[in-house]
């Protein structure tokens, strides 16, 4: 299985110049040694936990309004994101940052753009209590669940105990999220030896993706998620978005504007791009990356080749049967969307 | 198949006093002649249309914000409604009226609380362009779909023509909605002869439901949807909600405060109750109905019996595999949630 421990992954936190990257990748190796690996379905998810987690994932009663669920902002019909520049939260609040996909997010070394949550369990408590997202509290969320006999019974069955706290809630949600893996992209088929799975243009795009140096940051089975990197390494990135990236976590000045390198899996589906959602199209995102991360201006043809390659990274989307949520009981607190 | 033409259904628009109703139902007939019939799965839905309609049902790009889909207010995880007093629409606007379930709504003689749409096709155009709901326009919705090659191809395949207008959109959505039937409730099993499918209390509840006169209005396979009736027949209904019911359509004073009798199928899941969403629990709704529609005050036991019966009306919920939506193209207009 994948090594998710950041300390054991080559992080490349050092500044990578365009030249050194090119040098690093000059002798592009045989397929077995490609810098990108296929993803496989997760081995050991607890299915009962994941099934309960799926209910919680879709349950808007985890929000104060009764209207917003995890799936509102990470829509599994739309690549696990909301396709908005920044999200809409409780009371139609404008979110601060682009919603990243949850697809394959268990493969990332840390969660959030700035990596402030170590794993999915730690992450899942965040949005419920975030006043700009679900605007609830852990206490009220747990009270809600405890007031619903079917939930109480299912928690008991899944966890083998009467304890129903935020810890069980986030464990179940994380178990569901671990199932959200998208295997068998055309590019993975190619990696596994099917030469016809991608066409000439797509292969050219991949070769350029390697030789230009993209792969220095976007590598591993997730083509990202293995390091934090400066946004605007060669040329500063212009944005109105106040996010400071990794600096917010470490308060280390050298990490200002370092963001977790996002996965490029399913990137065709997760527009708009970048932490501020400023790039509407893949062509634009690739152009920006070339210029500000590598000091390269791609020709129209080169840009199109890379975009064509990136579209081979769309995997099989999780087949999700909509859960039927247990109804509230007479004692369940009703949601308060307007006060 | 069901006769959905209101003019051919006995509408009982005349005022029904408690006594006349009781008289009407005194000689409770053999099971074959029950005033409630089981529902069956729809026979002739076009599966390709329904599959396309399912995509549209879940696609928030039919709204101005890119955030609100049909499923936001008629959540198929929650009995086809949103379990809110009144809905949350574009820009967090407070809706005017409780969102009715879409489950089995094809069996109703007309759509909306006041019946202002004749059928599902006519209905489906409404919310897209309603400024308080999805706040889009039919033109922009159709432009959006036309800008997405996968949608264009699927419309062509399903309708056998290049025409992609709001008519095809609403036809497809309506075809999907026609699949949203919930057969095989325990009560239906009993109706079909399985004596053990409901217990003694539930049977007592059903007998009281008939003898008290509920069945005068809540009848047919949908236990409702066959007539408009005055809310507050015997005693006026107190509410702050300004909806005037059928009067808004006919401008006939005699129909002021007449509402379509809602289905009681899956009523366990569609709290809160009434057009203003004022009753949080079934016990409360049954109590109100007894008093203001029939002039009857049920004992605690009677109320509990009827509630127990109503809970036998929860059918098999539609098994919906979440659709994967075709991604926007580079030319698709991006949603504008905040302006
Ligand atoms: C109102 C919108 C909204 C809701 C609701 C929401 N999220 Fe998020 N989610 C976001 C945004 C925005 C981010 C990025 C925040 C950041 O990086 O600072 C995010 C980040 C994440 C990440 C990190 C992914 C990565 O690779 O870094 C995960 C996992 C996640 N959310 C899961 C959930 C779960 C589970 C829920 C429900 C309990 C949820 N989200 C509810 C908007 C939302
Ligand atoms: C030095 C590290 C680095 C290099 C080199 C690099 N990237 Fe990135 N890439 C990032 C980081 C960090 C982000 C996120 C930046 C942000 O959103 O603020 C990113 C974001 C992206 C995105 C947007 C993903 C999303 O979901 O928002 C795309 C597409 C992308 N990179 C493609 C490329 C391509 C193509 C190349 C080569 C031309 C490349 N990257 C080179 C670090 C790098
Ligand atoms: C913002 C909330 C909201 C959205 C979005 C929404 N609806 Fe509704 N829907 C309602 C409300 C509220 C009513 C009742 C309105 C009335 O009766 O005046 C309703 C009524 C209906 C009915 C009538 C059911 C019956 O038995 O009378 C149907 C069918 C329906 N909607 C389908 C849809 C479809 C299809 C879409 C998407 C194209 C949609 N709705 C989007 C809130 C919403
Ligand atoms: C004279 C007609 C009539 C009679 C008799 C009647 N109802 Fe109703 N019922 C209605 C109408 C009309 C509504 C919708 C009123 C509104 O929401 O304004 C309704 C609503 C309801 C609801 C709420 C459904 C929902 O989804 O909001 C329940 C539950 C209900 N009735 C049960 C009963 C029971 C139990 C009885 C007998 C004690 C009964 N009704 C008798 C006409 C009637
Ligand atoms: Ca994005
Ligand atoms: Ca309701």
Structure description:
- 2 copies of one chain form a homodimer.
- Helix content of chain A is 34%, strand content 3%.
- In chain A, helix 2 (47-58) packs across helix 7 (166-178), helix 9 crosses helix 12 and helix 11 (282-294) packs across helix 12 (300-310).
- Chain A is built from 12 helices and 4 strands.
- The first copy, chain A, has 339 residues and is mainly alpha-helical.
- The longest helix of chain A has 13 residues, at 166-178.
- In chain A, a hairpin with a 3-residue loop joins strand 1 (88-89) and strand 2 (93-94).
- Residues 1-30 of chain A have low confidence and may be disordered.
- In chain A, 52% of the residues are buried.
- In chain A, the strands form 2 sheets. A two-stranded antiparallel sheet of chain A has the order 1-2. Chain A has a two-stranded antiparallel sheet with strand order 3-4.
- The A-B interface holds A 58-61, 65-67, 72, 75-79, 82-85, 88, 91-92, 94, 268-269, 271-272, 280-281, 283, 317, 319-325, 327-328, 330, 334-335, 337-338 and B 58-61, 65-67, 72, 75-79, 82-85, 88, 91-92, 94, 268-269, 271-272, 280-281, 283, 317, 319-325, 327-328, 330, 334-335, 337-338.
- Bound molecules: heme C (4 copies) and calcium ion (2 copies).
- Residues 81, 98, 270, 272-273 of chain A line the site of one calcium ion.
- Chains A, B: Its cofactor is heme.
- Chains A, B: GO terms for molecular function: cytochrome-c peroxidase activity; electron transfer activity; heme binding; metal ion binding.
- Chains A, B: It comes from Pulveribacter suum.
């Amino acid at each position: 299985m994948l090594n998710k421990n950041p300390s054991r992954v080559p992080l490349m936190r050092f500044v990578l110049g365009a030249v050194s990257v090119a040098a690093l990748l000059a002798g592009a190796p045989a397929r077995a040694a490609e810098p990108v690996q296929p993803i496989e379905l997760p081995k050991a998810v607890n299915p009962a936990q994941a099934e309960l987690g799926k209910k919680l994932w879709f349950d808007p009663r985890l929000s104060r309004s009764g209207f917003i669920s995890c799936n509102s902002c990470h829509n599994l019909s739309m690549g696990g994101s909301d396709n908005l520049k920044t999200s809409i939260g409780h009371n139609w609040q404008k979110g601060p940052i682009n919603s990243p996909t949850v697809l394959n997010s268990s493969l990332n070394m840390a969660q959030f753009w700035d990596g402030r949550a170590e794993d999915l369990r730690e992450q899942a408590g965040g949005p419920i209590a975030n006043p700009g997202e679900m605007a609830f509290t852990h206490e009220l969320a747990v009270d809600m669940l405890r007031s619903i006999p079917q939930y109480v019974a299912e928690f008991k069955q899944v966890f083998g105990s009467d304890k129903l706290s935020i810890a069980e809630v986030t464990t179940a949600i994380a178990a569901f999220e671990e199932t959200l893996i998208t295997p068998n992209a055309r590019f993975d088929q190619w990696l596994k030896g099917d030469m016809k799975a991608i066409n000439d243009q797509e292969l050219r795009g991949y070769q350029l993706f390697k030789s230009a140096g993209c792969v220095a940051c976007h590598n591993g089975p997730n083509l990202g998620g293995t390091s934090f990197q400066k946004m605007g390494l060669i040329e500063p990135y212009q944005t109105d978005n106040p996010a400071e990236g990794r600096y917010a976590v470490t308060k280390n000045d050298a990490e200002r504007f370092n963001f977790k390198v996002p996965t490029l899996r399913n990137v065709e589906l997760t527009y708009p791009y970048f932490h501020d959602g400023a790039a509407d199209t893949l062509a634009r995102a690739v152009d920006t990356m070339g210029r500000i991360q590598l000091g390269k201006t791609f020709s129209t043809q080169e840009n199109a080749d890379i975009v064509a390659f990136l579209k081979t990274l769309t995997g099989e989307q999780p087949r999700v049967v909509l859960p039927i949520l247990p109804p509230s009981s007479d004692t369940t607190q009703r949601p308060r969307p307007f006060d």
